[in-house]
Every structure is written in structure tokens, then in C-alpha cells.
């Protein structure tokens, strides 16, 4: 068995007290400093009487300290994937203690409730007894270390317990496969450690093997360009980030420093693979698995079987004869029973298989697992919907040669729903139903198109097929019904002052929007007569507008830093707007970019209302 604590103690990598375990911004964190962080968290968590605690901290080093402290205190950590209202409410059925960046109504006030005196923690018996390798606990194989949540085949969130042995063996697998390739590389990431992929690759594996980590997620390509060029490194990424690498940035220095790029959470297109190969000189290592099973297989599309997956060592697999579903036995599972997945596969040889697609109705949008069944149940419970059928437009991707994924909603209304449609209009009804769904799924999963029908189409067998629903879309795709949120002036058919937009990605401190500036935008008047160009002041105003919509920004605007306008934004051209809330700096960082490169960017500074600028 791979022992995390023992492996760190005998690692060939540096384990001296002053050796660096990672960086929080520009601050290097030594092993001795990190040990004190663990001791501080332990002094608080050890006083909690409950056995299970929910944990959410965005800083990976602070999260690791709290996680290891909880395990030292023999607590089971419930890993919250996000802090959405519905998920927090569901977590209350599992835990009573919420530690970290949860909404105020859920977050446990540890200092008050448990009378912890933080200034004296460094002198506690636990802290004194620790050495610079003791922050990784020694635990029994059967210790219930973790609970993660994922969507099951029925659409309801399922609690997935993880024993210490499962985590240990999975780390051992990763090190045996890729450790030599990484060497002493520093680990950077674009993904969150609050999911099992990020937890293993960014926190547990590096700490178990003595590799340093960078605490913050790298959301901007410019951040990747800067950090990945500073020394030997590896990147833990997702397809959502790798598919948007701008070719106009100078990536030359990265090619000499980057040891590996990992991608998981969803399929990586061959175009994205080729872009990473060209720009970074690395072929991404794609990892296939799930919250239930852990890692199952991996691939690097550079040789034979380029589309096939190679199974992890010491993993047995077979294909169910009745439906071609993959079944596995693995030490990453809690027992030796065969586990059946919802993925259909085709065998290549004893070590390779091809994925053919999912059998259930769990779909992925930007690496987020979304249950169409759960969304339909939520709509039916609203009292406004008699029948609901949701469809991911995967089929349309081939026909339109587009990689954009959206969910389409086909709705049969109740009398109450019909009254809202007739009295207030389609836009108001769309927004009300989006509000219903937003309590259950992230904004990226909200339907892009809504069709209200007298009845769902059925075939001779009385079933509604995808083909029938796609046929209903053909007439609307020529002049789509835009249901994205807009300013009141847009809704009232006045000359618009805001763009058409939709939310692509949302994290606690980051959002990514797609905007399209309408041709008749008010601010185009006089700017300029030959070809309308979006004014820079409008771009800043929109960034602040959407920033206030998604983040709790301070009241007073104080100024702008690093403001640059590189390329014009024209009408009817899709552009991405990325916003990052830098809460500690009381700032909002924004940038506009598209396939042609960066258009604009800057940082808006704020102050609280009671503190004048």
C-alpha cells in the first residue's frame, strides 16, 4: 500500500523545513510555514464534536492545510463542488458544520462556537509535536476520508464515500505512470481542487511526492504565459481552458519548461490537442474516470490507437454483453465487485478500448455534469409546466460545424403557465423558468432556447424522439429566439444599450460570458459612420455592470489600472468577456477576447461606501 506520509518522508525530493511547498501569489510557503497552518486549522477543527465537516476554500494551499488538519482530527471531509444555494441546502442533510467560503447562512462561525484562540495555536501541544513532514497524517486504510457528490443515473446527486486506501492507491497509480515525466516540476492548475480530479492532481499527488504547487487557479492565458515559463512545471487543466488558447501570445519559453499537460472532465477535441501540441510542444495526457470509480484510463493521441484509451495498471475491465457498457474492477473502488458505468465501449485489445457514448441522460457542458432528468423534474414541480423535454444540441454540432453546446427546452404549459405567457410575454416566462432551474444547476446549464408547444410530438409508438424535436428547431434556427437576459431597454424594443449575452462558465470568483453587440446599439451612433466600433468606456461600463451582477463588489468606484484596448469590437461578432473578482484587493479584473486575440482588458478598483477613495 502506498503510504502518503511514509512516501513523503523517503522522497528523493527536498523535505527540509525551509524547502518550498508552494506559492500563495508571490509569497513562497515553506514546509515549516505550512506545518503551522495545519496546526492552526487542527486547533479549531479538533474541537468540533461532529464527525463530518463540509469544506470549501478556493486557495489550494489553505484548503490542503484544512484538509490535512481535519484528517489529523479523524474527521470525514465532505467535498463541496460549489456553494450554490440548492447544493448547500442538500449538504445540510449530510453535515452540520460548514468550514470556509460558504454563504453566511450556512458557514459555521468557528471562533465563536468553539472558543478557539488562534494567536496561541503555534504553542499548542499538537504544533510542538509536529515535524516538517507530519502534515500528512498516518491513517488506517479503511478510514472514511472523503465524501464527494456527483449526479447519478437517476438524476439525483449521489454521495460517494472515499476510503483512505482508495486515495492512496490512486496517487500511487499516478506516480507510477507519470512521476518520472514530471520530476520536480511545479504544479499549476486551471481547475478547482473541490472536484476529485483537481483534488488528486493538484493537492494530494503533489503533497505526497514533494512537488510544489501554485495555490491560485490560472484563469487567464496571460497568467499561463507568465507562470509556465518560470521553471520546470506541469499543468492540470480542463478542455474548457485548453480549447481557447490564443495563438497570438508568445509561448516560446513555455516549450522548454513544460513537462506535461493533463486534461480531464470531458472530451478534448482533436483540434485542441493539435493546438496544444503546436503552441506548447506537449501532447495533452487525457484522463478518463469518474467520481465513483476514480481514474480508469488515459491516452496521448500521438501514436497507434490514437483515439483509444489505455487502462490504468491493476485494473480489470470487461464489456457487458447485453448493452456494451463498460464494467471495471479497480483498487480505486471501495470493494472488489464489478462496477458498471453508463459508458458504452468497443474493445481494441486487452489494454485499449474506445468510448462510444453515454447511455443515460447525464450530459456534460464545459466539463460540468448536468442531469437532464433532474432539470425536467424541477420544471414539472414549478406548477407552470405540464410536460418538459430537454435536449442537448450535440446533433446540431455536426450539421452546423460548430462546437457550441446548448440545452434546448420543449415545454407544454399548465393553465397557470399559459396565463403568464399570454399576459407577460415569452421573455418574462423564460426568466421565471430559468429562476426555477437556477436553484438546481449552474447558470451554464440553463436552456438557450425555449419552445412552447400545445403537445410534444410523438411517433407511432407514442414516443417523442430526438429527431422530432430537432425538426421543430429547424424553423427557429434561421431566426433564433434569443432568450438570454438583456437590459430592460432591449426587452422593451427600444434602441439597446446592452449586448445579447449568455453565461458560459461560473465559479465563485470568476465568470465567462459570450456577448454579441447588436447592430442597432445606441452607443454606435457617431462612433463611427463608416463602421460601428464599440467605445472603450462602454466596455468598462459593461464589465462593471456584469461584475456587480455576479459578485458582491464594494460600493465605490475608485479607478482603473492596466487598461488596454488592443483590437476593436464590432457589431454582430461573438466576443468573450471574462471577469475575475479579486476580493482581497477589492478589484474586478476583466478582459474581452475572441478567436482573433485579446480586444481589451484592465482592473477596476473599488472601496467600501464608508471609506472615501
- Low-confidence stretches are 8-14, 111-123, 151-155, 395-402, 475-493
Total number of beta strands: 29
The side-by-side strand order for the widest beta sheet comes to: 8-10-11-12-13-14-18-17-16-15
Distance between the termini: 58 Å
What Rg, in angstroms, do the CA atoms define?
25 Å
Question: CATH homologous superfamily of the largest domain - what is it?
Answer: ANL, N-terminal domain
Helix content: 25-40%
**Oligomeric status:** single chain
At the fold tier of CATH, the topology name of the largest domain is Rossmann fold
Can you lay out the helices and strands and say which pair or pack?
Elements (H helix, E strand, L loop, with lengths): L3 H6 L10 E5 L2 E4 H15 L6 E5 L3 H13 L3 E4 L5 H7 L6 E3 L9 H5 L10 H5 L14 E8 L5 E7 H19 L3 E4 L6 H14 L3 E2 L6 H7 L5 E5 L1 H4 L11 H4 E7 L5 H11 L4 E6 L3 E6 L9 E3 L4 E4 L5 E5 L9 E11 L2 E7 L3 E4 L2 E4 H9 L4 E8 L1 H7 L6 E7 L1 H10 L1 H12 L11 E5 L12 H12 L10 H4 L8 E8 L2 E7 L19 H15 L5 E10 L9 E8 L4 E8 L2 E11 L6
Parallel strand pairs: 1-9, 3-4, 3-5, 4-6, 8-10, 10-11, 11-12, 22-23
Antiparallel strand pairs: 1-2, 6-7, 12-13, 13-14, 14-18, 15-16, 16-17, 17-18, 19-20, 21-22, 24-25, 25-27, 26-29, 27-28, 28-29
Helix pairs in contact: 2-3, 7-8, 15-16
InterPro entries: AMP-bd_C_sf, AMP-dep_synth/lig_dom, ANL_N_sf, ApeI-like, HotDog_dom_sf
Protein name: Acyl-CoA synthetase
Organism: Undibacterium flavidum
Amino acid at each position: 500500500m502506498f503510504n502518503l506520509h511514509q512516501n513523503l518522508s523517503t522522497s528523493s525530493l527536498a523535505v527540509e523545513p525551509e524547502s518550498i511547498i508552494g506559492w500563495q501569489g508571490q509569497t513562497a510557503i515553506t514546509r515549516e510555514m505550512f506545518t503551522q497552518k495545519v496546526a492552526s486549522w487542527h486547533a479549531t477543527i479538533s474541537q468540533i464534536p461532529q464527525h463530518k465537516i463540509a469544506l470549501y476554500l478556493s486557495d489550494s494551499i489553505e484548503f490542503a492545510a484544512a484538509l490535512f488538519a481535519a484528517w489529523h482530527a479523524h474527521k470525514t471531509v465532505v467535498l463541496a463542488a460549489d456553494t450554490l444555494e440548492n447544493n448547500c441546502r442538500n449538504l445540510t442533510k449530510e453535515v452540520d458544520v460548514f468550514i470556509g467560503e460558504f454563504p453566511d447562512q450556512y458557514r459555521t462561525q468557528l471562533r465563536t462556537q468553539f472558543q478557539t484562540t488562534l494567536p496561541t495555536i503555534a504553542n499548542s501541544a499538537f504544533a510542538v509535536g509536529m515535524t516538517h513532514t507530519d502534515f500528512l497524517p498516518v491513517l488506517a486504510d479503511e478510514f472514511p476520508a472523503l465524501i464527494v457528490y456527483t449526479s447519478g443515473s437517476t438524476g439525483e446527486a449521489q454521495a460517494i464515500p472515499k476510503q483512505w486506501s482508495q486515495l492512496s492507491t490512486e496517487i500511487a497509480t499516478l506516480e507510477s505512470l507519470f512521476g518520472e515525466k514530471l520530476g520536480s516540476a511545479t504544479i499549476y492548475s486551471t481547475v478547482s481542487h473541490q472536484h476529485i480530479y483537481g483534488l488528486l492532481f493538484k493537492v494530494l499527488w503533489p503533497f505526497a511526492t514533494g512537488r510544489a504547487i501554485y495555490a491560485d487557479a490560472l484563469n487567464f492565458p496571460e497568467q499561463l504565459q507568465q507562470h509556465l515559463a518560470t521553471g520546470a512545471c506541469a499543468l492540470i487543466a480542463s478542455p474548457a481552458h485548453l480549447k481557447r488558447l490564443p495563438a497570438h501570445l508568445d509561448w516560446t519559453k513555455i516549450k522548454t519548461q513544460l513537462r506535461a499537460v493533463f486534461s480531464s472532465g470531458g472530451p478534448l477535441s482533436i483540434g485542441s490537442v493539435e493546438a496544444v501540441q503546436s503552441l506548447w510542444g506537449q501532447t495533452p495526457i487525457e484522463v478518463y474516470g469518474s467520481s465513483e470509480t476514480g481514474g480508469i484510463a488515459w491516452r496521448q493521441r500521438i501514436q497507434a490507437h490514437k483515439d483509444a484509451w489505455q487502462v490504468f495498471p491493476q485494473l480489470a475491465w470487461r464489456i457487458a454483453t447485453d448493452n456494451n457498457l463498460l464494467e471495471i474492477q479497480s483498487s480505486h473502488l471501495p470493494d472488489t465487485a464489478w462496477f458498471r458505468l453508463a459508458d458504452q465501449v468497443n474493445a481494441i485489445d486487452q489494454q485499449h478500448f474506445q468510448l462510444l457514448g453515454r447511455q443515460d441522460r447525464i450530459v456534460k457542458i464545459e466539463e460540468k455534469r448536468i442531469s437532464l432528468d433532474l432539470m425536467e423534474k424541477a420544471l414539472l414541480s414549478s406548477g407552470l409546466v405540464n410536460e418538459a423535454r430537454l435536449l442537448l444540441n450535440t446533433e446540431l454540432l455536426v450539421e452546423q460545424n460548430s462546437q457550441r453546446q446548448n440545452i434546448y427546452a420543449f415545454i407544454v404549459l399548465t393553465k397557470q403557465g399559459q396565463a403568464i405567457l399570454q399576459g407577460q410575454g415569452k421573455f418574462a416566462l423564460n426568466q421565471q423558468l430559468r429562476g426555477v432551474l437556477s436553484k438546481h444547476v449552474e447558470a451554464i446549464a440553463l436552456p438557450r432556447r425555449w419552445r412552447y408547444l400545445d403537445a410534444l410530438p410523438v411517433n407511432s409508438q407514442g414516443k417523442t424522439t430526438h429527431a422530432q424535436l430537432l425538426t421543430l428547431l429547424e424553423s427557429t434556427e434561421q431566426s433564433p429566439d434569443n432568450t438570454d437576459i438583456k437590459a430592460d431597454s432591449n426587452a422593451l424594443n427600444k434602441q439597446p444599450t446592452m449586448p445579447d449575452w449568455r453565461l458560459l462558465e461560473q465559479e465563485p470568483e470568476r465568470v465567462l460570458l459570450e456577448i454579441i453587440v447588436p447592430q442597432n446599439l445606441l452607443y454606435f451612433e457617431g462612433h463611427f459612420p463608416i463602421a460601428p466600433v464599440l467605445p472603450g468606456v462602454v466596455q468598462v461600463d459593461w464589465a462593471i455592470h456584469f461584475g456587480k451582477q455576479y459578485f458582491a463588489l464594494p460600493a465605490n468606484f475608485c479607478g482603473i489600472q492596466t487598461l488596454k484596448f488592443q483590437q476593436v469590437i464590432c457589431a454582430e461578432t461573438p466576443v468573450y468577456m471574462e471577469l475575475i473578482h479579486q476580493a482581497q484587493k477589492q478589484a474586478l479584473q476583466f478582459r474581452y477576447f475572441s478567436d482573433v486575440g485579446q480586444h481589451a482588458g484592465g482592473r477596476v478598483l473599488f472601496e467600501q461606501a464608508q471609506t472615501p477613495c
